[in-house]
Design brief:
Blueprint (H helix, E strand, L loop, with lengths): L5 H15 L4 H10 L19 H13 L6 H6 L2
């Protein structure tokens, strides 16, 4: 039998929470990353208002790892 892997279960659970509670996942992830701002004050690579920075890159990496950016895995599985 091919049992589902933990990463797939995580992706499905996150997707369900996002839909059930109408969560803006992009904002939630960016807000969580912003909790680290105090450690990188004045670091233009961490945050640059006019250009892509480390915070943007981290958010993109998290969304990509969840496959919830443009290729929502759960939508493909369940047809939603």
């Amino acid at each position: 039998m091919n049992y589902p892997a933990a990463d797939l279960i995580l992706k499905i659970a996150v997707s369900k929470m996002v839909r059930k509670y109408d969560i803006d996942l992009d904002d939630l992830i960016y807000d969580t990353i912003s909790d680290y701002d105090q450690f990188f004050e004045g670091d233009n690579e961490w945050f640059d208002e006019e250009d892509t920075d480390m915070k943007d890159s981290l958010r993109d990496q998290v969304l990509e790892s969840l496959q919830l950016d443009q290729n929502d895995t759960v939508a493909l599985i369940f047809g939603r």
